[in-house]
Amino acid sequence: MRTEVITVRTGRSPTVTDITREAARFVQSEKDGLLHVFVPHATAGVAIIETGAGSDDDLLTAIGELLPTDDRWQHRHGSPGHGRDHVLPAWIAPYATLPVIDGQIALGTWQSICLVDPNGDNPSRQVRFSFVKG
User: Domain tally for the chain?
Assistant: First the structure.
């Protein structure tokens, strides 16, 4: 197994960051196997979605509606409503596993690998790519 950790600057606002290019670079010299993408944070996730056509903004809107940043959360450290950020990984897992065929990630036409980070308290995230040969 081969691994690499990248750092992604997400800023101080909720964001969806496309990391497909970085993942593709990681597997380009491989043949067949599995790419595992993992975010070692309690308040971020990995989503496979379309980007650039509004779906990434729609996802952030849906997170805001389903998990509002108000005072309902028991987990109360950090910025107001931060407890919802700790609930996010129950809906958007902190990992994804994708097939790699002849050095290419087998994504659908409109699919991208995205880091989903609603937590403005941490402007920088790490993502671990791991490749397991088939």
Answer: 1
Domain extent for 119: 2-133
Which tokens in the block code for residue 60?
């952030």
User: The pTM is what?
Assistant: 0.94
**Residue 114: its H or E element:** strand 112-117
pLDDT one-digit tens code per residue, 97-133: 999 999 999 999 999 999 999 988 889 999 999 999 9
